Amino acid sequence: MSSWFKRKEKGIQTATEEKKDTPRGLWYKSPTGKIVESEDLAKNFYVSPEDDYHVRIGSKEYFEILFDNNTFKELDEKLSSKDPLRFVDTKKYSERLKAAQQKTGLKDAIRTGIGKSMGKELVIACMDFSFIGGSMGSVVGEKIARAIDVAKKKKVPFLMISKSGGARMMEAALSLMQLAKTSAKLAQLAEAKVPYISLCTDPTTGGTTASYAMLGDINISEPGALIGFAGPRVVKDTVGKDLPDGFQTSEFVKEHGFLDFISHRKDLKKKINLYLDLIQNQPVRT
């Protein structure tokens, strides 16, 4: 067929080779099938306006939402994992780390920073699921520990945003050690009477849930987030029974007493600061 063939049905005169596909990334389709322009999605705090689906986002987006004017000082930004066990599965761990760093532009599965939120200083540690599933390795634990130390020293509230598949198997015991390490640091923070808020986002699972994610002075979440130790499929296969509707969603977890409240993403900054104002006996900010 000639390359000059033109479609004339319904008055279309565009040559086949001149057709252009819609650029990728301009549209987002939610799991419920709703389609929204990426620009509108960003303006709506990365929440699909038609079905209120909270899209998974990372530290970059959360810092933009929570820090005033997206202004903050990043802590320990160059810290990255080694390969002490020389772990090899389908690929060397060292190669996976390098590939993840190149793909995401991150050093590891967490970023930490200090800045102002509604005019008050706040230390935030935020996990990134895009980096090896947000798995908790030695660097994740170390950066959380160091961020807690900063919060303790400066008497600044600490916010932990969890988004993780659990422990990083490629670091074995070094990964599991971070459960005790971060929990001990949070105990020190509590002794210093510095507030700790834990925000569980989708998904918060495994060792993350078994440690710092559930140790907040107040534990909060976003709508529809998966929160649990083992995933629903594993639990179902283990118990051999069908699970209740909404099992392990943030709404289910709150109903059973493990969360204090659930907040729409657009209200997060205001509600977090309202809580801090109340417990620190400060004038409530509006």
TrEMBL record:
Annotated GO CC locations: acetyl-CoA carboxylase complex
Region (Disordered): 1-26
EC identifiers of the protein: 2.1.3.15
Reactions that this protein is recorded to catalyse: N(6)-carboxybiotinyl-L-lysyl-[protein] + acetyl-CoA = N(6)-biotinyl-L-lysyl-[protein] + malonyl-CoA
Keyword ATP-binding: yes
Pathway as given in its UniProt record: Lipid metabolism; malonyl-CoA biosynthesis; malonyl-CoA from acetyl-CoA: step 1/1
One MF term in the entry's GO annotations: ATP binding
Location of the protein in the cell: Cytoplasm
The family this protein is said to belong to: Belongs to the AccD/PCCB family.
Protein name as annotated: Acetyl-coenzyme A carboxylase carboxyl transferase subunit beta
The organism of origin for this protein: Flagellimonas hymeniacidonis
Name of the gene this protein is made from: accD
